[in-house]
């Protein structure tokens, strides 16, 4: 077996094991969070136009990792619920970019420095863009939505039985069949927390969590394998000089090219991250890699087509410009700082 083939297979095995483990672990944690922040609460929290609503929209986007399949139906629901336009746009920008799965995979693959640049630009540009679009009156380019179609299943868990009531957090109460006296003191908040957690488990709040996580993993697995395969082949076979000549650190124009190439492509971030890792190892500049990741994660041709059913062409074009601008600015920041 040639050295190139050994390098390819070794990189494939390493990335497949590492990224699969991280995806399952983070998906489980996110699934728990989503059971406490259902979609109807998101609409209510984004209905205000106060400044903190913009920050809250970005944070909610970070803990609700939606792909374009589920973002568009949710966006329809937000429009119907008359959520604030500015916060709604912040959520639209931040949700696919600040996906905690993407952030963890980035940190594990590229380290904290690059991940910090990515998170900073994704967060700040999302908030600034949402506020600016609200201030400039782009709300007029939103189409009327009379019905929400194809809404994805909300991860709200099983409803609680009407005859039961959740513990109030007083530090004592009954869980299960018997009453347990806990007393008071410093341990009371801890006891109250575990009492509430036991109630959630008993009432079925986490029922189906693993099956949902495994189903999500199976859906993303083909994209993950595709990205790992392409990345491993690049790592093992593509000559380093070929990539560094056109996209190396000496060619800053590779950054906008990578951003424009990445934006229309329908590549899940789970697939582009191992691909980007291989490009970086072959000498492609970190700035170009950053622009490619943000461009491909923040927008896709499929998503733009779906957005056309909600927005007029002007707002769709502005959405794309913001994503490409975010990718280019983060790419040049990486080029200068990394």
From TrEMBL:
Where in or outside the cell? Cell membrane
**Subcellular location, principal:** membrane
Q: What is this protein called?
A: Permease
Q: How does it sit in the membrane?
A: Multi-pass membrane protein
Which keywords, in A-to-Z order, does the entry hold?
Cell membrane, Membrane, Transmembrane, Transmembrane helix
Q: Can you name the source organism?
A: Marinobacter iranensis
Q: Does the keyword Cell cycle apply?
A: no
User: What domain of life is recorded for the organism?
Assistant: Bacteria
Similarity comment text for this entry: Belongs to the UPF0718 family.
For the keyword ATP-binding, the answer is: no
Instruction: Please name the taxonomic classification of the source.
Output: Bacteria, Pseudomonadati, Pseudomonadota, Gammaproteobacteria, Pseudomonadales
Instruction: List residues traversing the bilayer.
Output: 12-33, 53-75, 87-110, 116-133, 220-238, 284-307, 314-335
Task: Identify the stretch(es) annotated as Disordered.
Answer: 155-174
């Amino acid at each position: 077996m040639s050295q190139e083939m050994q390098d390819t297979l070794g990189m494939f095995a390493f990335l497949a094991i590492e990224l699969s483990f991280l995806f399952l672990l983070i998906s489980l944690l996110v699934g728990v969070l989503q059971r406490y922040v259902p979609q109807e609460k998101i609409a209510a929290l984004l209905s205000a136009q106060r400044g903190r609503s913009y920050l809250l929209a970005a944070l909610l986007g970070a803990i609700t990792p939606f792909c374009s399949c589920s973002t568009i139906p949710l966006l329809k629901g937000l429009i119907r619920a008359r959520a604030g336009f500015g916060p709604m746009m912040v959520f639209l920008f931040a949700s696919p970019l600040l996906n905690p799965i993407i952030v963890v995979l980035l940190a594990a693959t590229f380290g904290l420095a690059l991940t910090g640049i990515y998170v900073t630009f994704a967060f700040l540009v999302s908030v600034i863009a949402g506020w600016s679009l609200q201030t400039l009156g782009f709300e007029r380019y939103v189409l009327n939505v009379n019905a929400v179609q194809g809404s994805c299943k909300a991860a709200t868990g099983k409803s609680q039985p009407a005859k039961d009531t959740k513990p109030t957090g007083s530090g004592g109460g009954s869980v299960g069949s018997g009453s347990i006296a806990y007393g008071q003191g410093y341990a009371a908040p801890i006891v109250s927390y575990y009492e509430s957690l036991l109630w959630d488990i008993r009432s079925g709040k986490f029922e189906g969590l693993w099956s949902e996580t495994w189903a999500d993993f199976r859906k993303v697995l083909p994209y993950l394998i595709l990205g790992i395969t392409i990345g491993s082949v690049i790592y093992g076979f593509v000559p380093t000089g070929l990539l560094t000549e056109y996209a190396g650190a000496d060619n800053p124009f590779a950054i906008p090219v990578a951003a424009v190439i990445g934006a229309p492509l329908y590549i899940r971030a789970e697939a582009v991250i191992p691909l980007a890792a291989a490009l970086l190892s072959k000498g492609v500049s970190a700035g170009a890699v950053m622009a490619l990741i943000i461009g491909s994660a923040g927008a896709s041709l499929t998503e733009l087509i779906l957005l056309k059913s909600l927005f007029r062409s002007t707002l769709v074009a502005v959405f794309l410009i913001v994503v490409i601008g975010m990718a280019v600015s983060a790419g040049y920041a990486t080029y200068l700082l990394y």
